[in-house]
Predict the structure.
Amino acid sequence: MGVSVRSRLRRASSLRRPMSRLAQNILAAAGEPDGELSLDLVGDRRMQRLNRQYRGRDYPTDVLAFPMREAKGPVTPLLGDVVISLHAAARQSAAGGRPIEQELAALLVHGILHLVGYDHERGARKARRMRRKERSILKSLRRVPRMIEARSIVSPQPSRRLRSSKAGLRAPRRRGL
């Protein structure tokens, strides 16, 4: 199986092949060259629904990971699922002044590391360990190939939920890598 990529945004279907290759390179750098995963590229609305359903947080986020190895049973090459919001990636790349390809690579690294057991939400020490591994893998990728023109694929506009919030609530900002 390797890496299965699905895009829920029609205009982003051209990302399937380059994101699959990128994921395979990241898996190898993470020590899981035979690992299998599915990658779903979505928009903010779908991401918000998933975040609400599985984490109880009613706002869109940039990346979610659903590890399979946390379940009891024999170890399998199937690592789990990674879901990336292309809208969030476009916003974050614009805000950070870096190409969207680098943002997508960083989000994919982050998601894959969750699948292989890293978790930054379990204490400062584990967060530092994960951050070091993210940097190491991103550095090992050297140059991320140009995949897309951000404006042609996704809109970096804030989601409807964030724009219409009367209380001024915003989704938490993702920390830099």
Remarks:
- The first strand starts at residue 3 and ends at 7.
- Residues 124-140 form the longest helix (17 residues).
- The chain has a mean pLDDT of 82.
